[in-house]
Design goal:
By secondary structure, this protein is α+β, with helices and mostly antiparallel strands. The protein folds into two domains: 60 residues, no CATH class; 208 residues, 3-Layer(aba) Sandwich (Aminopeptidase), CATH 3.40.630. 25% of the residues lie in helices and 22% in strands. The strands form three sheets. The protein has an eight-stranded mixed sheet, sandwiched between helices. Helix 1 packs across helix 7. It is globular, with a radius of gyration of 18 Å. The protein starts with 5 loop residues before the first helix and ends in a 12-residue tail after the last strand.
């Protein structure tokens, strides 16, 4: 996502934490007491590294700027239209590849973004008036069969610009299989999209959405979270918060017919896959288990 600085991005659209962050957010029985920057989104506790200490609060409750309570809840099928409106207003226009390609209105992009809702592991921040003010969209990745051939999503896309985005994803999938790193794991959580209404940014909503996602991982025994970052800022924040890179593709190296396909503005120079483990899974020195 093309955010002007990392602090703004973290408050608005990135949601991960670790025990080394010197954070001043206060959570008391699920109540968030506001924040005004990067250093206040996460508590200085063993937030991710000690998953067993995550509180079992459902739904989580906090306060909006107008003192109207909002909750963090599971996204259901009935939320589809509201989630799409959120993405169209606050996410699609800022993602760096979308911006470079000037994709605009694209039904294929909308359908691609929403298809993860069927996995029932995405969350929303919703006010008492039923307004969705933040979302964290996730999917479940299942280990493919040994002889499986990855489907090429770009082949069936009729939108010429979004077809280029799918082509990049197809290329990455063909050249990297995250499950090769985790031979004892059959399901991985795939963090897709985090976005918060600009009128409610700086309130810790993204942090609460992530907290609920991590609770989901713990309760469903999912030990790894996977994120494909097309934005430099999102990757930097994830690394700061304990994620580590397992795959990188510089945009200048991704070519079709000997031509570079994607050249988003600097500092967005690479698509990177970052992961966070919440269990002791051993990986050897060459990245293979």
């Amino acid at each position: 996502m093309d955010i002007k600085n990392m602090s703004d991005y973290f408050k608005a659209n990135c949601t991960f934490g670790n025990k080394n962050d010197s954070i001043k957010r206060v959570i008391d029985a699920g109540v968030m007491m506001g924040d005004d920057g990067l250093s206040k989104l996460y508590p200085n506790t063993n937030f991710v590294h000690k998953m067993e200490n995550i509180s079992k609060i459902a739904p989580l409750i906090t306060q909006t700027p107008n003192d109207a309570a909002f909750t963090i809840e599971l996204i259901t099928e009935e939320d589809t239209d509201g989630v799409l409106e959120m993405l169209k207003t606050y996410f699609f226009k800022d993602e760096p590849i979308n911006t470079f390609l000037n994709i605009g209105e694209c039904k294929e992009l909308e359908e691609f973004s929403l298809k993860c809702l069927k996995d029932n592991c995405s969350y929303k921040a919703v006010t008492k008036d039923n307004e969705i003010i933040g979302v964290f969209l996730n999917a479940l990745m299942h280990r493919p069969a040994v002889d499986a051939v990855p489907e090429k999503a770009a082949d069936d896309c009729e939108h010429p610009k979004f077809k280029k985005v799918l082509g990049l994803m197809d290329y990455i999938e063909e050249n990297f299989n995250i499950f090769d790193l985790y031979p004892n794991t059959d399901v991985i959580l795939d963090g897709k999209i985090v976005s918060v209404n600009t009128n409610y940014r700086g309130m810790g909503i993204a942090g609460l959405l992530t907290e609920k996602t991590l609770q989901y991982m713990q309760s469903h025994n999912i030990p790894v979270m996977h994120v494909l970052c097309t934005s430099h800022y999102s990757a930097r924040v994830l690394e700061k918060l304990g994620f580590h890179e397992v795959y990188r593709l510089n945009y200048d190296d991704y070519k079709v017919n000997d031509e570079v396909v994607l050249k988003p503005s600097e500092p967005h120079v690479a698509a990177r896959i970052l992961v966070k483990e919440i269990a002791d899974l051993k990986i050897n020195s060459n990245g293979k288990a």
